[in-house]
UniProtKB/TrEMBL annotation:
Pfam (any one): PRISE
PANTHER family to which the protein is assigned, alphabetical: 3-OXO-DELTA(4,5)-STEROID 5-BETA-REDUCTASE
Domain PRISE-like Rossmann-fold: 66-355
Superkingdom as given in the UniProt entry: Bacteria
CDD domains, per the entry: 5beta-POR_like_SDR_a
Identification of the protein by name: SDR family oxidoreductase
Length: 355
């Protein structure tokens, strides 16, 4: 039987890279989003609202997936609302495909907030884990929408008999427009603004992040990991961390990024200087730059998610992930992190998203 993938959140960083990889490997791929793109050749777009069962039932009436990949979430004002909305999205989706009896595996993407806490309690005293974080670490004793999403997958798997995998990447580096967690593109936009204005490329985060060890997850590595887990018997019904496989210090990488863009780098100077505040008034400037350089996207907030980059770079501890579990089961993909950023910057420039 040919594998048929339903990629939920196909327009995001994770979903778009996953869909591209699946198509390369010969899968039939349906891309579900509220406004699915049509740029990727071979992707079958499915427009649906995950909060409405009638929308899902109509959109999926002729879609019979063997594998479901959930890469979508929705940000809300409070964690209680995050839990309600994001668990409902997963529950509605799995309820919609349940009668088809075709689903063999469901993969859910969450992240390191599983260990660090949700937005309201992110990396706060009392919730800080021992690092590197490992999959066997227990859930934190606080509410977290990632836990609620996982529980929906577990309940549906018990009901319908499919296998599952949970994927916990660190900061995902890859190309997407309109994404709410997009460190790589955010830093590219910030560096481009610095070059245009002559400002220094100022590190916005904490001493712990500047001097401590860190890692990230290339979207291409995450895509390969999701496909591996969904087609490897030994990886069924397990949760996994996913990262590139190397570690770095921002005190090294910041200068590498600055050199790529040809701007002056300023490191941590004893004060956290949030990027969200630094570019808060640059919307008009970016619009002017888009006109000047004929860029495809003139809205700064469609490219830069400074609030989330500030969360990651402002953490009071060094954070990296343990990949031993995946390695022992046979996943050996490795990606140089500097190349992850440079590959992304090159693609953004080629596609006229940065000057």
């Amino acid at each position: 039987m040919q594998k048929k993938a339903l990629v939920v959140g196909a327009s995001g960083i994770t979903g778009s890279n996953l869909a591209e990889r699946l198509l390369t490997e010969g899968w039939i791929v349906y891309g579900l989003a509220r406004s699915p793109g049509t740029e990727l050749e071979g992707l079958i777009p499915v427009a649906a609202d995950l909060l409405r069962m009638d929308s899902l039932n109509t959109a999926l009436s002729d879609v019979n997936p063997t594998h479901v990949f959930i890469t979508s979430w929705m940000r809300n004002e409070t964690e209680a609302e995050n839990i309600r909305v994001n668990s409902l999205m997963v529950r509605n989706l799995l309820d919609a495909v349940s009668p088809k009896k075709t689903v063999q595996h469901v993969a859910l993407v969450t992240g390191l907030k599983h260990y660090l806490g949700p937005f309201e309690a992110y990396a706060k005293e009392g919730t800080l884990p021992i690092t590197p974080v490992r999959e066997e670490h227990p859930r934190l004793p606080i509410e977290n929408f990632y836990y609620a999403q996982e529980d929906e997958v577990y309940a549906a798997a018990e009901r319908d008999g499919f296998t599952w995998s949970i994927h916990r990447p660190h900061s995902v580096i890859g190309k997407a427009v309109g994404n709410m967690m997009n460190m790589g593109t955010t830093l590219a936009v910030y560096a481009s603004i610095c070059k245009e204005t002559g400002r220094p490329f100022q590190f916005p985060g904490s001493d712990a992040q500047w001097n401590g060890l860190s890692d990230v997850t290339d979207a291409r590595v995450l895509a390969k990991h999701m496909i591996w887990a969904s087609t490897t018997e030994a990886a069924q019904n397990q949760a996994f961390n996913v990262a590139n496989g190397d570690v770095f210090r921002w005190s090294w990488l910041w200068q590498q990024i600055a050199d790529w863009f040809g701007v002056d780098a300023n490191g941590f100077d004893g004060t956290v200087r949030p990027l969200e505040a630094a570019i808060a008034h640059d919307g008009t400037l970016w619009h002017e730059m888009a006109t000047k350089y004929q860029l495809k996207e003139s809205q700064l907030d469609r490219l830069a998610s400074a609030w989330h980059t500030d969360l990651d770079l402002g953490r009071p501890i060094e954070v990296m992930t343990d990949m031993a579990k995946s390695r022992k089961l046979g996943f050996t993909v490795y990606q140089d992190t500097r190349d992850s950023f440079f590959d992304l910057f090159t693609r953004l420039r080629e596609e006229k998203l940065i000057p």
